[in-house]
Amino acid sequence: MKMRIAIAGGGLGGLTLARILHLNGIEAVVYEREASRTARSQGGMLDLHPESGQRALAEAGLAGRFRSEARPEGEEHRILDTAGRTLVHHVPEPGSFSGRPEIDRAVLRDLLLESLPEGVVAWRHRLLAAAPRPGGGFGLTFEGGHTADCDVLIGADGARSAVRSLLADTALSPVATLVELTIGDADRRHPKLAELVGPGNLWCVGENQILAAQRLGDGGIKVGVSLRATDRDLDAYRGKRDLLDLFDGWDPGLTALIEAGDGPPIPRRIEAMPTDFRWAHRPGVTLIGDAAHLMPPVGEGANQAMLDGAELAARLAAGPDPDTAIRAYEEEMFARIGPIAEMSARVQAMMLSPTAAEDLVRFFAPRPAEAATVD
Predict the structure, then answer these.
(1) What is the DSSP code string of 110-179?
(2) Which residue ranges are tagged as binding site?
(3) In principle, which of 91, 187, 210, 307 could form an S-S bond with 226, CB 3.0–4.6 Å?
(4) Binding residues for NADPH
(5) Cβ atoms 44, 193 nearer than 8 A
(6) Could you tell me which residues are annotated as the binding site for FAD?
(7) CA distance 321 to 307
(8) What b-and-e string marks burial along 242-257, b requiring 16 or more CB atoms within 10 Å of the CB?
(9) Within the chain, what is the greatest distance between any pair of CA atoms?
């Protein structure tokens, strides 16, 4: 009898898992809550690390496609102070994929979606609950009344995972407030801002706050305001004037990034799990990505989710049985994620500290043979 595998969540981790299972002749269904691949914006750029995200794509047979879509020049980054003075300017080696090339999240997701057979992703399937079945496996209930059964259930369903409740309870803690804006067609409409941001990332660093921007593959700019976590209502950040008041005294050339945003700011809470979160093994069910280890967004989340998917798929493909595969994956994942989660928490705290500028200069200090300059 075929093993019925259900993957709750069609993000990067879940799709990587489904792709590598497919390459190994193992069928799975990805249940995704969104209505379609274009139902909502997928966010900004991701830098894929050689040891995690790029490794996962190689195991998925998609390294060539990635290289055709990624932008090595997107690795360029600058750190400025509130007066607009350059503190760090890193310029990558032209055309090199040896570092952490950038790719738009939407492009990467499409790359993975297009690598899967038609029907693998079941759209409009938001998982509400999963319950053990008397004969083994799980019964799934989706929004709208849809139901399904599976033998193996993998929670790739993000921060508020419905699958996680089968394994453990954990509290999510706020670590920051992020307010986002988008500037479309920046080269034509806002050439000075396009030049300011460059082809990669820009961080303008003050005390306990950062004004950041990154260039998108379509020529637009994603702007992000990062603030320390507070109990302040998110509605307080929905107006540009509200945001600009937070940057009083900053160079107007920097705050122009806020003024140029197309549409109102979009605020959200940034949360994280305890860095030591673990669960006791339970047959037939496990977690990957943010469902397993939600971390601050400092460059590891998507990379680790994709590596989770690749490592779990390899274990399931190798056998000898799903339970042994899941247990081995969990032990390896916990050992790998612990130090990364702790590092991510430290970096997040550093970036929103009173001494963030000098701390970031030290953090990005060029090592020998790196193509970086500190002005």
Answers:
(1) HHHHHTS-TTSEESS--EEEEEE-TTSSEEEEETTS-EEEESEEEE---TT-SSGGGT-----EEEEEEE
(2) 40, 47, 105, 290
(3) 210
(4) 40
(5) no
(6) 47, 105, 290
(7) 21
(8) ebeebbeebeeebbbb
(9) 68
CB 202, CB 76: distance < 8 Å: no
* DSSP 8-state symbol, 365: P
Question: Cα dist. 133→148, 155, 302, 325, 347 in Å?
Answer: 11, 17, 32, 21, 43
Distances (CA, A) of 317 to 58, 117, 119, 183, 212: 16, 18, 21, 44, 42
Q: Quick check: 122 and 29 in contact, CB under 8 A?
A: yes
In tens digits, what is the pLDDT along the chain, a chain of 375 residues? 578 999 999 999 999 999 999 999 999 999 999 988 877 777 778 889 999 999 999 999 999 999 999 888 888 999 999 999 999 998 888 877 777 888 999 999 999 999 999 999 999 999 999 999 998 999 999 999 999 999 999 999 999 999 999 999 999 999 999 999 999 999 999 999 999 999 999 999 999 999 999 999 889 999 999 999 988 999 999 999 999 999 999 999 999 999 999 999 999 999 999 999 999 999 999 999 999 999 999 989 999 999 999 999 999 999 889 999 999 999 999 999 999 999 999 999 999 999 999 988 888 775 544 433 333
Whether a cis peptide bond, with omega within 30° of 0, leads into 320 is yes
Spatial separation of the C-alpha atoms in residues 142 and 69, rounded to whole Å: 34
Half-sphere exposure of 123 (CA within 13 A, CB side): 9
What the block records as the tokens of 41 is 């914006």
Alpha helix (H) residue ranges in 260-321: 290-293, 301-318
Residue 69 is inside which H or E element, if any?
A: helix 63-69
Q: Which of 132, 133, 141 is nearest to 167 (CA)?
A: 132
- Domains, the chain, with CATH or none: 5-70+104-171+274-346 (3.50.50.60), 173-272 (3.30.9.30)
The structure tokens 């390896």 sit at: 332
